[in-house]
Amino acid sequence: MALIIPRIAQPVSAAADIPARLKAAGISYTPVSHVNWPEAFPYKPKVEFAAAHAGDALLLHYRVEEQSVRAVACQDHEHIWEDACAEFFIMPAADGIYYNIECNCTGKLLVAAGKNRHERTPAPMQTMQSIDRWASLGTEPFDTRTEPTKWELALRLPVSTFFLHKLDSFEGLRATGNVYKCGDCLPVPHFISWNPIQTENPDFHRPEFFGQMLFE
Questions:
Q1: Mean pLDDT of each 10-residue bin along the chain, 216 residues long
Q2: Residue 126 neighbours by CB under 8 Å, 6+ apart
């Protein structure tokens, strides 16, 4: 499966502007709908995302509807995946190094890079501070809310986010990756993906199941 990531002509400086800019540019949304482990984790919230780039920045917008939410993480690099979490994994080169960009519903981030799930290098603080975030639920942590909730999340990821590579621009980049929605500590845990994963147990760190990501 291939994802075409179009270029937006004008620069985008703030994550809060991304939803409107993507709408104005006619960028389509892609569902995250593969239930990879239906017997153990059958629940599928409604999740879709849009991706574009402005040359020097990757622009992401997630739209989620789920039956409960959680945002316990107070700062970056905590256990983001235990909250209501959207994840974007990308391998920008053929060297086997991929990035996991995990963000909860209040904009707390985990970014790391490496060739497998066990050998990950966390992004330095300067890199994390350069990523602008916007979350429709605000930025304050909260415990589990057991009520149907709609939420949105936008991220502006400059080329410097990919700190183990020297990217000058996203233009023409040929990458691979996957997009996920999870919530390990939600009342009903779930592990869904854009591109299907064929493993016995939930495991997002499987680049052999990445799809193509083609930047215009």
A1: 93 96 97 98 98 98 98 98 98 98 98 96 98 98 98 98 97 98 98 98 98 98
A2: none
Nearest to 185 by CA among 68, 74, 87, 89: 68
Q: Is the dihedral of CA 83, 117, 201, 1 positive or negative?
A: positive
Domains and CATH numbers, the chain: 2-215 (2.60.40.1190)
| Four-CA torsion 93, 31, 78, 84, nearest 10 degrees | 180
Please give the Cα distance from 158 to 171 (Å, whole number): 13
Rounded to whole angstroms, the Cα distance separating 212 from 215 reads 10
**Which backbone phi and psi does 183 adopt, to 5 degrees?**
180, 80
What lies within 8 Å, CB to CB, of 85 at 6+ separation is: 102, 103, 104, 105, 181, 182, 183
Token couple for 211: 């799809």
- Which three-class secondary structure string do you get for 137-148? CCCCCEEEECCC
Cα distance between residue 35 and residue 165, in whole Å: 32
Q: What burial class does residue 124 get, using C-beta atoms within 10 Å of its C-beta: 0-12 exposed, 13-18 middle, 19+ buried?
A: exposed
